[in-house]
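Input.
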Amino acid sequence: MVYNPQWITAIATSVLAFLTFITIIIALFKEDILHYFHRPKIETIISNQNPFVIYGNREKDLKYFRVKIKNIGKTVAKNCHLRLIVVYPWQNSRPVISDPVTLKWAGSPLDSRYLIPANRPTINVNLKSIFKEKRDIPPFGGWEFCDLFKITKGGHVINFISSQEENRFLKRGNKNYLVYVNIIGDNFKPKIFSFIIKNNEDWDKISIEKT
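Output.
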């Protein structure tokens, strides 16, 4: 067999050029590549069982529905918060809620860094704390609960709980509702999840179902 040095040199040059190109690409996009493999990965989990649905008092005439926000990635999900985007009656294209609002983390402490007038709409010097709206979620399966809405035995509305006391309300009745929520953070792309509120004629039979 006769070897052609020029042919071998050409292959070696091509391989070297390709490796050089790959090295340059890695150097240029190193941070993006590392972020992709180590980024937060957010999962949403809902259920109609405890602790996703809990009674809010001993009398059991108040009930909270919550979603678990879980980070299965390798990096802390920074400053996570949930935004109620829009609510439609089921199979109806006309929204009943279209004014977005930030939802409240379950058990979130009042935060004095965020203040609102105590007696709105009158503006005065009496300010009160609102619930902290952003929270870091640890990696490798860390999670937090966020309150979606609450209902009461004697009430006639479904109350979406805002971190800024700007709650949104739905009338209870014989309608199902389709709800869209956006999950936002500093170091991951926004994620939308949706669910249906069902059986809302009887307050104690209301359930939610992921779409």
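Residues 10 and 16 are 10 Å apart (CA to CA).
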